[in-house]
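Consider this:
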Amino acid sequence: MTFGNEHPNSQARQPAYSYTRSSSLFPYSHYYHLHRSDSSPADVPADTPNAKKQMVDGYMNANIGSGQGISVKTGAEVGGEHGFGFNADGHLGYAGMGAQADGHLGAQYGIHAQGETHLDSSQGAGFNTEAQVGGKYGLAAQAKAQLGGGQGAGFNTEANIGGDYGLNAHAEGHMGLSQGAGFNTGMKLGGDNGLGAQAKAQLGGGQGAGFGITGHIGNHDGKLGFTIGGKGNESKGSE
């Protein structure tokens, strides 16, 4: 999902309250990946002198100047791929500041989390964070917010339990001069051919005022809504 105000010119070509079953789950994921050591503890025999050394791996780098302000990077891993690890970096300069971090506890079915925040004159202020527990079919959640940077204000949250065919829910809102104010929320259970519902509301932004509800059960779709005003649109009632 993306904020509705990222492509303001495209709204005049699209019908209000378009409904699509498929959605990209967590499109803002994978900002940073953990830097694994070349060898894990399992690769080193227990009786070698390097066995204890390989159990803990870490780094820290700092730079000042060179037109980039101050930047720091650090990370560590304890117990190899199946243990605990984290990476973090940040920068502070004339243009603004930003920071990123990610971490894990356990391997594929453990806990993974990452977050990012920024503040500068071109992108405004924003943050993005997400976490996953139990692997692909466990619990995953994401939250994102943005203020300024030519995009007004907006937020986006999403959660999933059980993977593609489990339970998925999302909520999104935005407010700006060009896009007006809007809200979008929905849920889906059992994949694209299961059970799904979505509700949207919009005020201003060249689309007038409108409200819509869409849903599907299996291969059957339904929708109900209205739109009043808007550029190139006549008032419409329920369908």
